[in-house]
Amino acid sequence: MKKRILLTSFDIWLPHQQSNSSDDLLIEVGKLHSLAYNLTFLRHLPVDVKLASSQVEAKIEVIQPNYIILCGMAESRKKLSVERIASYAENILETTVDLEQLLKEATAIEISDDCGKFVCEGVYYSVLDYLRQHQLIIGCIFVHVPVLTKENFEGIFADFLLIVNKLALL
Question: Residue 16: how many CB atoms within 10 A of its CB?
Answer without folding.
Answer: 6
